[in-house]
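Entry 14. Structure prediction run on the chain below.
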Amino acid sequence: MEPPPIPRSDDDGVGAFFDLDKTTIATASMFAFSGTLRAEGLLDPHTVVRALWGRLVFKYLGADHDRMEDMRNSALRLCKGWDRARIDALVRETMEDVIDPIVFEDAIAEMEAHRAAGHKVFMVSASPEEIVRPLAQHLGADGSVSTLAAVDADGKYTGEVEFYSYGPYKVIAMEALALEHDLDLERSYAYTDSVTDLPMLEAVGHPIAVNPDKALAKIAQERGWEIRTFTNTIPLRERVNEHARTGAVVAAGASALAGASWLVRRRKRAA
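Output returned:
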């Protein structure tokens, strides 16, 4: 069955918020880059095996609060001492090779439909900024919010986190983006696969469960939310509009930095 058409807005007050892992791409982004990190000598074979096992768990059991916490803490311990600039460069250099083959064609089509309807498109993910930000730019998104790892004065990861873009904190990020871009969340859309993102879906007027885990599928059915299945992947170079992709780079980067700064300031005030 074809999804209902996205109505065109009379103004720019509508946003579309996309989760990343298993919603925009077919697997967890951190697992996708494990081969790149191993090739650079940052991961040993034992760690890669553990990552592959975690990928299987993530694929077949989904992500609950405890699994998300375990993944976050493991990643923070693993990357402690790594140079952020080096990781950022690695991701950008290998983006097309690693991510292009696993992007859902349906997700790209949905983003294009929102742009055609005059909507703003954002990526809101618990994955690291170093992955989410360049991918959002690669897709021509208007902005992104992601998990921010703390770094020391030398630009190396400390093993701590500045902002965890997860659960209710995603809603804080979405509210910040809505304020920045003058969006009405009640008229906006959100796409995600995990029950851990229930607050994200509840924050908008058009929640859409994509490839939902069992818990989210049950809630979506009970509440009459739209449920979508994204399966087909396609290389982005064959689908993404080049003009939209390059034209949004500056806007996406500026929005990501502004949103991150606002969120960090908010956390410090709340501390």
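Residues 25 and 185 are 24 Å apart (CA to CA).
Filed with the rest of this week's runs.
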